[in-house]
Automatic annotation (TrEMBL):
Gene3D superfamilies: Pleckstrin-homology domain (PH domain)/Phosphotyrosine-binding domain (PTB) (2.30.29.30). Keywords: Coiled coil. SMART domains: PH (SM00233). Transmembrane segments: none annotated. InterPro entries: PH-like_dom_sf, PH_domain. Residues 57-172 form the PH domain. It comes from Eutrema salsugineum (Saltwater cress). Residues 20-47 form a coiled coil. This is PH domain-containing protein.
């Protein structure tokens, strides 16, 4: 246990009888290290508080494997079949309020990407696939009105089913855009 508190270049003395003399450079180095450690501690506390806040206010959160695709624009050739390309990346996904956030890690302070639930035009299941080590991944997709398609997967069918049911419920319950006459524009989520 005492080794945890031993500063580099300084022996731990338990009886307090020995004096350690430091040069000005060594003292400044120790002060700098202490300052760096305090800064790191403050950063880690901020991360922890952020994760705590996100998890408390999130409707659903967890790690999913994600890949994104853009829909072909009019006049473009259809996208190539890239089923053999393994470009699934683990992301920490958070459903919070009316937005879906994609973080690289659960401890990140800001998301890498996000989409509004109101922008989701289609949700659905995708066929399962098998990755290395014979892990079966269950999949679903989220299509936005901008043409961005998020493909999501997990080894847990229960997790995929939870995401699908919550997203379908939440994206349907989003208030529809109202026209000046009070009628809706008729947009629906499948």
């Amino acid at each position: 246990m005492l080794n945890l508190f031993t500063l580099r270049r300084l022996p731990w003395v338990s009886d307090g009888q020995e004096k350690v003399e430091l040069s000005a450079a060594e003292l400044e180095s120790l002060r700098s290290e202490l300052s760096d450690l305090e800064e790191r501690e403050a950063y880690l506390k901020a991360q922890l508080e952020h994760v705590d806040e996100v998890l408390r206010s999130a409707r659903l959160s967890g790690y999913l494997f994600i890949r994104s695709r853009w829909a072909a624009l009019p006049g473009e050739p259809p996208p190539l079949d890239d089923a053999e390309v393994d470009d699934w990346l683990p992301r920490f996904v958070v459903l919070q309020g009316a937005c879906l956030f994609f973080y690289l890690l659960s401890t990140d302070l800001s998301p890498q990407d996000s989409t509004l639930l109101a922008d989701i035009v289609e949700l659905g299941s995708l066929p399962s696939y098998t990755r290395e080590f014979d892990e079966t991944h269950h999949c679903f997709y989220i299509l936005t009105r901008q043409g961005l398609r998020f493909e999501c997967s997990s080894t847990s069918k229960t997790q995929v089913d939870s995401w699908l049911s919550v997203l379908q419920l939440d994206s349907r319950s989003e208030p529809e855009e109202r026209l000046p006459n009070g009628s809706s524009d008729g947009a629906t989520v499948n």
